[in-house]
Write a structure and sequence with these properties.
The protein is α+β, with helices and mostly antiparallel strands. It contains three helices and three strands.
Length: 107
């Protein structure tokens, strides 16, 4: 007979709950309105291997981040795609409070 298994325990690491992700980005267009996806002119710009397509950049923004550093790191990797999708600036928000605003260059 096999020995009895110990009672199941919760995993040591879990994804943070939504309330544990207080940092987010608000994406704005040139008029300061919420940005929406805008397809890139592929003939003019050409394809960029390994980079997300700009039309996906706006819809792929995570809902939140557990720390300011995580939010800023993500932006550092995503800003070119966001700019190509028509995002002119971003606002870093912590639990509904505007922390800082950054203007994105046109990659």
């Amino acid at each position: 007979m096999l020995p009895a298994l110990p009672p199941a325990r919760e995993p040591a690491f879990r994804d943070p709950e939504p309330v544990a992700r207080p940092w987010s980005w608000r994406l704005l267009d040139d008029a300061g309105e919420p940005a929406t996806s805008a397809p890139r002119d592929r003939e003019r710009d050409g394809d960029r291997d390994g980079e997300p397509e700009p039309e996906d950049a706006v819809s792929d923004v995570p809902a939140g981040f557990p720390s300011r550093g995580d939010a800023e790191t993500w932006l550092g990797t995503a800003w070119r795609g966001l700019a190509a999708a028509g995002v002119a600036s971003v606002v870093l928000v912590q639990e509904g409070r505007e922390v800082t605003r950054l203007v994105l260059g046109r990659g």
